[in-house]
C-alpha cells in the first residue's frame, strides 16, 4: 500500500506525526505500507512556489491513498488567489476526482459532556454527512472580481451542478444509507436557488432505484437548526459542496470538538484522500496542543475505504475509544476530572492502546 503523506501547514505536521505513529504499529506487525511525504498548501508554495506542486501531484497520482494534515495560514492570505494553500487543496480534490466527501459525526459516549449541547441531545449520535466535493460554487465559472457596467466593483461566483455530478453523489449517499438505518435527508435551498431545485429533482429520480431508503428533503437553514435541536433524527445527509462544508463543521461540535471529525474523500475507484475536517488552527500551531484524533480516525477510514481492511480500521477506532475511556483529553475536549494531555501525549496513549 503506497500512501502519500501530506502534512501541510500549521498544526498539520504535528497531527500527522501522531497518525503515522499509529499506522507504524500496524506496519511493525507486518502490514505492507510505504509512506512517501510531499508538500501541499503553504508548504508547497514555500518549497516549489505552488500550493499543489508537480512533485506532489506525481506522488499523489501514483499512491493508493493520500493522508493529509491541513493547509492554510495567515502568512499566505495575501498571496494571489491561485497561489494560496486552499487552492492547493481544491486542486488535489479536482485532480484526483475526489467527488464524495464522507464526514461521519459520531459521538464517542465518553465525550457526551464535551459537547456544548446537553448530553441527552447528543448521546448515541451517529450521522454520516455526504458532501459533494468537486462541484458547486467552489468550482463554477465564471468567478472573480470586476467593475460592473455602473462602474462599481463586484465579486461573483457561479453555483452550478450537472446532472451527472448530482447522480453520482446521490448513488454514493443511497448506497451508504442502505448499509445503515436506510434514512437519507437531502439538503437544499430549492425554495430560492435553481441549482439546488435541480439537485432535489435528480435525487428524487435516483431514489427510484433505492425503494427501501426513506428519502426526505430539508432546506439548509432548517437543517442547520435541526442539527442543534434534535440531531439524532438524522442518519445520512447528502448535500452540495458549500452547504456540506458548513453543516459538517456544525455537526462536529455535536461530537465534542472539530478535533474529532474525520473525513474521507473518494473518487470512482475508491482511491481516497483522508484528512481531518478541521483546518490548520494557526492559533495553536507549534504548541503541541492540537487534538490528533480526527487525523488518527481519518487513517482508520483509509484502512476501511481504500484498503478494505475493516479489522485495522476497527482496531484504530477501538484504541481511540480506550484512550478516551481512560480519561485522556486534549484541551479542546477537556473537562474537569480528566487527564489533560498534549498532542504528542495523546499519540503516545493511542499507540499504547493499539
Ligand atoms: P480551523 O479549523 O483551523 O480552526 C477553528 C478553531 O478550531 C480554532 O480555534 C482552532 O484552534 C480549533 N481547532 C481546529 N482543529 C483543532 C484540533 N485538531 N485540535 C484542537 N483545536 C482545533 O479553522 P479556521 O481558523 O477557520 O482556518 C484556519 C486556516 O485553516 C485557514 O487558512 C483555512 O483556510 C484553513 N482550513 C483548512 C482546512 C483543510 O486543510 N482541510 C479546513 C478548514 C480550514
Ligand atoms: C474543508 C475546508 C476547505 C473547504 C477549504 C480550506 C478549501 O474548509 O476541507 O472543509 O472549504 O472545503
Ligand atoms: Mn471546512
Automatic annotation (TrEMBL):
Mg(2+) binds at residues 221, 245, 249. It catalyses: (2R,3S)-3-isopropylmalate + NAD(+) = 4-methyl-2-oxopentanoate + CO2 + NADH. InterPro entries: IsoCit/isopropylmalate_DH_CS (IPR019818), IsoPropMal-DH-like_dom (IPR024084), Isopropylmalate_DH (IPR004429). It comes from the Bacteria. NAD(+) binds at residues 73-86, 279-291. Its EC number is 1.1.1.85. Residues 2-350 form the Isopropylmalate dehydrogenase-like domain. GO terms for cellular component: cytosol. One of its GO terms (biological process) is L-leucine biosynthetic process. Homodimer. Catalyzes the oxidation of 3-carboxy-2-hydroxy-4-methylpentanoate (3-isopropylmalate) to 3-carboxy-4-methyl-2-oxopentanoate. The product decarboxylates to 4-methyl-2 oxopentanoate. This is 3-isopropylmalate dehydrogenase. It comes from Pseudomethylobacillus aquaticus. The lineage of its organism: Bacteria, Pseudomonadati, Pseudomonadota, Betaproteobacteria, Nitrosomonadales. The gene is leuB.
Amino acid at each position: 500500500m503506497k500512501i502519500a503523506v501530506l502534512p501541510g501547514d500549521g498544526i498539520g505536521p504535528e497531527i500527522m506525526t501522531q497518525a503515522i505513529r499509529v499506522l507504524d504499529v500496524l506496519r511493525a506487525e507486518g502490514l505492507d505500507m510505504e509512506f512517501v511525504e510531499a508538500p501541499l498548501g503553504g508548504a508547497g508554495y514555500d518549497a516549489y512556489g505552488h500550493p499543489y506542486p508537480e512533485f506532489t501531484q506525481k506522488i499523489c497520482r501514483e499512491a493508493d491513498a493520500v493522508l493529509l494534515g491541513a493547509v492554510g495560514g495567515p502568512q499566505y492570505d495575501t498571496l494571489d488567489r491561485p497561489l494560496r494553500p486552499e487552492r492547493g487543496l481544491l486542486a488535489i480534490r479536482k485532480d484526483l476526482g475526489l467527488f464524495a466527501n464522507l464526514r461521519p459525526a459520531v459521538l464517542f459516549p465518553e465525550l457526551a459532556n464535551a459537547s456544548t449541547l446537553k448530553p441527552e441531545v447528543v448521546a448515541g449520535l451517529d450521522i454520516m454527512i455526504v458532501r459533494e466535493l468537486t462541484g458547486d460554487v467552489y468550482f463554477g465559472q465564471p468567478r472573480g472580481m470586476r467593475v460592473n457596467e455602473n462602474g462599481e466593483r463586484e465579486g461573483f461566483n457561479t453555483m452550478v451542478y450537472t446532472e451527472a455530478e448530482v447522480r453520482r453523489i446521490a448513488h454514493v449517499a443511497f448506497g451508504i444509507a442502505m448499509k445503515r438505518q436506510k434514512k437519507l435527508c437531502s439538503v437544499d435551498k430549492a425554495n430560492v436557488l435553481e441549482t439546488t431545485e435541480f439537485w432535489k429533482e435528480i435525487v428524487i429520480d435516483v431514489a427510484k432505484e433505492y425503494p427501501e431508503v426513506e428519502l426526505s428533503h430539508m432546506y439548509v437553514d432548517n437543517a442547520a437548526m435541526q442539527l442543534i435541536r434534535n440531531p439524532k433524527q438524522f442518519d445520512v445527509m447528502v448535500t452540495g459542496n458549500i452547504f456540506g462544508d458548513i453543516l459538517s463543521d456544525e455537526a462536529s461540535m455535536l461530537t465534542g470538538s472539530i478535533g474529532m471529525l474525520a473525513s474521507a474523500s473518494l473518487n470512482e475507484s475508491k482511491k481516497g484522500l483522508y484528512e481531518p475536517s478541521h483546518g490548520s488552527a494557526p492559533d495553536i500551531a507549534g504548541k503541541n496542543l492540537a487534538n490528533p484524533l480526527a487525523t488518527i480516525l481519518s487513517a482508520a477510514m483509509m484502512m476501511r475505504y481504500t484498503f478494505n481492511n475493516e479489522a485495522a480500521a476497527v482496531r484504530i477506532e477501538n484504541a481511540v475509544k480506550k484512550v478516551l475511556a481512560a480519561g485522556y483529553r486534549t484541551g479542546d475536549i477537556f473537562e474537569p476530572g480528566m487527564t489533560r494531555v498534549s498532542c504528542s501525549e495523546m499519540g503516545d496513549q493511542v499507540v499504547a492502546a493499539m
